[in-house]
């Protein structure tokens, strides 16, 4: 009976003392500061190779490339329409670089390589049996 009480007490202490600590360790998603946004935009550069996804504080998501960079704002051209859009640094919530392949493309490439390796192993095994 004492073992059950001690184990229940230990479980109670672990749950109610560790839970608040664990809940506080997850960082909240915060907006980037104006200086951070300006630095990321300047790091991306200008031109069609400077592709980015910009999330605004109102929830809008714009994909395109950086066309101009100024002191208070920058111009991004939409990747679908090519229409230029002036965006203030203070309106930006997050800037993401779009260099390389998307996750879905990388997953497809990985699966294709895996299937190719498995087929090659099967082919080698079959040819060695003859």
What is the strand and helix layout of this fold?
Blueprint (H helix, E strand, L loop, with lengths): L1 H23 L9 H11 L6 E6 L4 E9 L3 E6 L5 E5 L3 E6 L5 H27 L1
Antiparallel strand pairs: 1-2, 1-5, 2-3, 3-4
- The helix tally amounts to 3
Largest sheet: 5 strands, antiparallel
The strand count comes to: 5
Cα separation of the termini: 69 Å
Into which percentage range does the β-strand content fall?
Answer: 15-25%
The secondary-structure class comes to alpha+beta
Task: Based on Cα principal axes, name the global outline.
Answer: flat
* Share in helix: 40-55%
Query: The CATH topology of the largest domain, please?
Result: SH3 type barrels
CATH class assignment of the largest domain: Mainly Beta
> What is the residue-mean pLDDT, rounded to a whole number?
81
Oligomer: single chain
The CATH architecture of the largest domain can be named as: Roll
Strand order of the largest sheet: 4-3-2-1-5
How does this structure look, described?
The protein is flat. Strand 1 (51-56) and strand 2 (61-69) form a beta hairpin. The chain has two domains: 34-99, SH3 type barrels; 100-130. The longest helix is centred in the C-terminal third of the chain and has 27 residues, at 103-129. The chain has helices at 2-24, 34-44, 103-129, and strands at residues 51-56, 61-69, 73-78, 84-88, 92-97. 47% of the residues lie in helices and 25% in strands. It contains three helices and five strands, in the order H-H-E-E-E-E-E-H. A five-stranded antiparallel β-sheet has the order 4-3-2-1-5, covered by helices on one side. The protein has 130 residues and is α+β, with helices and mostly antiparallel strands.
